[in-house]
Amino acid sequence: MSSKTPILVDEARPSTFEVDAINERGETVATPIAGEHALTLYLDKRELLTLMTLGAAPAHLALGYLRNQRILRSIDDIASVQVDWETGSVAVTSRSLAEHGTAIWDAAGREALDERLERRTVTTGCGQGTVFGDLMDELDRIVLPGGARLTEETLYEVMDRVRRHESIYKVAGAVHGCALCSNAGPERGDILRFVEDVGRHNAVDAIAGWMWLEGVDGGDKIFYTTGRLTSEMVIKCAQMGIPFLLSRSGLTQMGWDIARRVGITMIGRCQGKHYLLFTGRERFVRLPTTAFA
Amino acid sequence: MSSKTPILVDEARPSTFEVDAINERGETVATPIAGEHALTLYLDKRELLTLMTLGAAPAHLALGYLRNQRILRSIDDIASVQVDWETGSVAVTSRSLAEHGTAIWDAAGREALDERLERRTVTTGCGQGTVFGDLMDELDRIVLPGGARLTEETLYEVMDRVRRHESIYKVAGAVHGCALCSNAGPERGDILRFVEDVGRHNAVDAIAGWMWLEGVDGGDKIFYTTGRLTSEMVIKCAQMGIPFLLSRSGLTQMGWDIARRVGITMIGRCQGKHYLLFTGRERFVRLPTTAFA
Q: What is the CATH number of the domain that holds A134?
């Protein structure tokens, strides 16, 4: 193991919780519901925000959040990530603080970070505010592999794997799920990582955080989400370097615009054998079907 | 009209946008998708955040956001709300600035506001961070009418009205909808206000903003959402003073906890004749059915 790998102190919360409800026949029904817990993220002891999460992957969620919000750039910046459910907190400590006693925003060359943390006005996405210009510039620097190919067969494989995967959603509803799948070799279509959360953005961030920590490249992967393909979802997929974004749901105009701009192959309304291929069509391969019943 | 009513300069964006997609049969399908636009909110020229929105009710969304985030307390604080899609912005100007040239956070008695705006760390909810204690205290001060009653008949009336309501969702998917319904008199069950947005929280905020602006009381109303009943949804419903919260979706543990704490009657998984009554059961009235086929 590299000596640079951050130390993780991680812990999941129970995913479901049972309560009684009364149905339309007046019967009492024991009903599983999804857990939701407040998790406050601290960076070098500075409170950043509180996320409401299912609590399945809090350390990776913290990492993915910092990465996708472009607060930190390199996993090497991080010394440790410590989850503590007693206080509902996850504390991320930089090497700058751990090894030199200097908070990361006070370290040399990090002046922009302090301003970024102060001005962190973006919550549900970005726009023509002061953050937008920066983000679009960054997106334009992302290059997704033009030669990557997704076959219809692999698409169906992914949908089938996801459908059969054990999930909290099947038990309790009320959560969104994301899956990182392989698009290479004999494991093509296999689910490599599956995360559910109350909010679809948290589920994406938890996968992004895992990829970042483990140094997993996105170019030979497929990303599936139950959530809608909005601008933020497409941006995160691009930031993870994944050229294929699938959802059983629909999409928005800005999600579509950004997908075209960064060159993502976006396929929505995936259900059974149905799908709609929207962007990046050159990467999609529909094989001729053979006449099996 | 009261001279205290804020001036609104409002404008909706087109709700749907059509793009071509290729389906599993290789056919090109003209597909409507939901609009999504960046809207940056300014308060007395200070940039607060950028919301991604369908753009159906931007002025009310801005008002509701400020109200539900407890940034402003009284509608009388506000002189104007001006939406400008050219710059993707909505500028809220306080009476303090408009009439006295003083930004509201510099006005007497508003010291806490500046700190609140700086420390606005809460994005997807609240928790054990520094904001949590304040929010729970505020929730405990909310008193919802214990004597309010919702009959099963009215519940079904609401579900039927919502089902039949024209919506972007039916056309383009990818949006959440919220409806404010009457629970009084002959219009019981009628939809008074219906808003859709890319994010369910924006849809709620737009209704909250409208109620705040128009001085509409929530005590004799019902709130329906297509979105899941998470902590934030329940909190907002309580802040609007509405005792009945309905959803076709599920709920989370914290949503359930908070519903019990503030005394909301929460009914989830509403679909056709099915529903699950979770909390605040004393307000719900199931009438004996007569034997109609």
A: 3.10.20.10
Q: Does A259 fall in a domain?
A: yes
Q: How do residues B35-61 score in pLDDT, each as one tens digit?
A: 988 899 999 999 888 888 999 999 999
The single residue listed with the structure tokens 């969304």 is B61
Which residue, of A115, A141, A167, is where some domain finishes? A141
- Could you list the residue range(s) of the whole structural domain that residue A117 is in? 7-141
A184-198: average pLDDT: 94
- Write the CATH number for B257: 3.40.140.10
Q: Which of B106, B141, B176 is the last residue of a domain?
A: B141
Q: Do A126 and B38 touch (CB under 8 A)?
A: yes
* ipTM given for this complex: 0.82
Per-residue burial over A228-258, b if 16 or more Cβ lie within 10 Å, else e, is bbbbbbbbbbbbbbbbbbbbbbbbbbbbbbb
Q: Are residues A264 and A182 in the same domain?
A: yes
The owner of tokens 């067969």 is: A153
Pairing type for strands A221-225 and A244-247 reads parallel
Alpha carbons A15 and A35: distance in angstroms, whole number: 5
pLDDT digits (tens, 9 = 90+) for A136-180: 778 888 999 989 999 999 999 999 999 999 888 888 877 889 999
Q: How many domains does chain B have?
A: 2
Tell me if A48 and B172 make a contact (CB, 8 A cut-off).
Answer: no
Rounded to an integer, the average pLDDT of B263-283 is 95
- CA-nearest residue to A253 within chain B is B35
Nearest CA in chain A to B226: A174
